[in-house]
Specification:
The chain is mostly beta strands. The chain folds into two domains: 111 residues, Sandwich (Immunoglobulin-like), CATH 2.60.40; 94 residues, Immunoglobulins (Immunoglobulin-like), CATH 2.60.40.10. It is built from three helices and 16 strands. The strands form three sheets. Strands 2, 3, 6, 10, 12, 13, 15 and 16 form an eight-stranded mixed beta sheet that branches. Strands 1-8-7-4-5 form a five-stranded mixed beta sheet. The longest helix has 7 residues. It is globular. The chain starts with 25 loop residues before the first helix and ends with a strand. The relative contact order is 0.20.
């Protein structure tokens, strides 16, 4: 889900067709190192009923990035040109579109983005080559059940405790390693985020963060060991 104020820069990635990517030679691999950070995960919104693929990478200044799926299909092909070609880019976050499941079911989403190793490659402005193999799984936790606040309810700024419980529908073998709570003012101008241990079931929102007569959205995300995450959300108004 796209959250104003939490992500400073999000670049749109180009979607390509099928390509043949020849294997890297031993000489090429000797001059290649992994990305400092490379990540691929799925976020499911259990409230809205949709899913999105999130891509993140970070390194020193680069001018070319490619991502290929396990079948050899080129998914992202991004090049810095003009003044950015020699100046370079660093951090990249992108998120796919999120059509609702009644238009694009989760099973179709899983076919579009199959499990396996996705190959990230890139070139730094100094010519250094980058290459990382990033696994993607279909281990999806079920969305938490938010007990408080009630969706559409009114709350006191002095006593807002977000409470939730894990869903019994999380499949066997799917391991929740933590929860994340995000509270966002509906106009997107303020946001609060907390990363919590897997045993957490509540989070108190500081009263200084909340403003009377204002609508907010609260999200609770269950985070799986693979990085995949499923969120449930509610909206509420502060008295």
């Amino acid at each position: 889900m796209k959250r104003p104020g939490l992500i400073a820069i999000a670049l749109l990635a180009c979607v390509g067709g099928l390509v043949y990517l020849p294997g890297a030679s031993a000489a090429t691999l000797e001059r290649t190192r992994p990305f400092k950070a490379a990540d691929l995960k799925v976020e499911i919104n259990a409230t809205d009923g949709d899913a999105g693929l999130q891509t993140f990478l970070d390194d020193e200044a680069w001018n070319e990035i490619k991502i290929v799926n396990p079948a050899g299909a080129l998914m992202i092909d991004l090049q810095a040109t003009g003044p950015l070609e020699d100046y370079g880019l660093t951090e990249l976050f992108s998120e796919s579109s999120e059509p609702p499941f009644d238009e694009f079911p989760l099973e179709e989403f899983k076919k579009l983005f199959p499990e396996g190793d996705y190959v990230f490659t890139g070139t730094l402005v100094d010519g250094t080559k980058l290459r990382s193999e990033v696994p993607l799984t279909h281990d999806f936790p079920a969305g938490p059940t938010i007990l408080k606040p009630e969706d559409g309810g009114q709350v006191s700024a002095a006593a807002l405790m977000i409470r939730w419980e894990p869903s019994a529908q999380t499949p066997p073998g799917v391991h929740i390693v933590g929860y994340q709570v995000i509270v966002v003012r509906e106009d997107g101008t303020r946001s609060l985020q907390a990363d919590l241990v897997p045993s957490a079931r509540k989070f108190r929102v500081p009263k200084e963060f909340l403003q009377g007569g204002t609508e907010y959205k609260a999200e609770v995300l269950a985070i799986e060991a693979s990085g995949n995450q499923t969120l449930t959300e509610v909206t509420f108004t502060v008295k």
